[in-house]
């Protein structure tokens, strides 16, 4: 997760084809998996608003801890340390970011993976929405000459939901959000020769190069990183005015 993206297990075939479009934060697109796993998967994708974030951070921290060494933390670390990873300035614009979460609507919160903490909740209707099982972030650049770039960070899925297409759906969704914000170039970093790098390659990212000793691993050792990029087109760039020649006004 570093500024980086968490290493993930290989991803099985995605859920039904076509991009996932996120509307108002309260809306979500429901997808159903045909995975033969023990628990059914009814996936919803949701854009987090600032008022929703406090009730979600504990669950997101649980997922970070469940991934163990595949996090942005250096051992020893605590649940509080993991929670700080989601102290985010949500919004669209310089130095802000979007946070998308994936929920399994087939697993109510009271039976899900979240820590049982008195008084914990994630807003009205949270229990009916289902357990949070993964997330991804889109961070916008602050430099005036880099308004069209954004970093994909913190893609992480609970290990109970690995190889079920959750990460791929999150990547599809974050790309659609980037296009809606007139972002033209996505950037990320990840562990070289990892399943995560294979996933990003499969969704259209190109490896730009390898940077040696780029980030600390959870065990405190410096590791190399693969830098990756993907150029975006909205499909109607000439008419919509999102070309890189026209500066976006935040």
From TrEMBL:
Here the segments flagged for biased composition (Low complexity) are 1-19
Q: Which Gene3D superfamilies match?
A: 3.40.630.30
Q: Sorted alphabetically, which keywords does the UniProt record give?
A: Acyltransferase, Transferase
Note whether Transferase occurs among the keywords.
Answer: yes
PANTHER family to which the protein is assigned, alphabetical: ACETYLTRANSFERASE, AMINOALKYLPHOSPHONATE N-ACETYLTRANSFERASE-RELATED-RELATED
Biased composition, class Basic residues, residue ranges: 31-40
In its UniProt entry, the species of origin is given as Cutaneotrichosporon cavernicola
CDD domains according to UniProt? NAT_SF
Q: What InterPro entries does this protein's entry cite?
A: Acyl_CoA_acyltransferase, Bact_Acetyltransf, GNAT_dom
Q: What is this protein called?
A: N-acetyltransferase domain-containing protein
Per the record's keyword annotation, is Transferase included, yes or no? yes
Check the record and name the Pfam families matching this protein: Acetyltransf_1
Region described as Disordered: 1-40
Q: Which residues form the N-acetyltransferase domain?
A: 72-233
| Superkingdom of this protein's organism | Eukaryota
MF terms per GO, please?
acyltransferase activity, transferring groups other than amino-acyl groups
């Amino acid at each position: 997760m570093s500024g980086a993206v968490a290493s993930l297990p290989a991803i099985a075939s995605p859920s039904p084809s076509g991009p996932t479009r996120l509307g108002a934060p309260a809306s979500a697109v429901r997808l159903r998996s045909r995975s033969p796993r023990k628990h059914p998967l009814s996936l919803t994708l949701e854009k987090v608003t600032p008022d929703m974030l406090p009730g979600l951070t504990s669950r997101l921290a649980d997922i970070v801890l469940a991934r163990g060494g595949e996090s942005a933390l250096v051992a020893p670390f605590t649940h509080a340390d993991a929670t700080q990873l989601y102290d985010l300035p949500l919004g669209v614009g310089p130095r802000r970011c979007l946070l998308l979460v994936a929920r399994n609507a087939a697993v109510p919160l009271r039976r899900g993976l979240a820590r049982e903490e008195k008084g914990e909740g994630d807003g009205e209707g949270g229990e009916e929405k289902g357990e949070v099982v993964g997330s991804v972030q889109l961070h916008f650049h602050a430099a005036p000459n880099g308004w069209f770039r954004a970093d994909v960070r913190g893609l992480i899925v609970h290990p109970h939901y690995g190889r079920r297409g959750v990460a791929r759906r999150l990547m599809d969704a974050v790309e659609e959000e980037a296009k809606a914000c007139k972002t033209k170039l996505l950037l990320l970093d990840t562990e070289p020769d990892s399943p995560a790098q294979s996933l990003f390659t499969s969704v259209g990212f190109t490896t730009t190069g390898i940077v040696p000793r780029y980030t600390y691993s959870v065990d405190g050792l410096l590791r190399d990183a693969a830098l990756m990029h993907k150029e975006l087109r909205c499909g109607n760039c000439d008419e919509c005015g999102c070309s890189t020649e026209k500066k976006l006004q935040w």
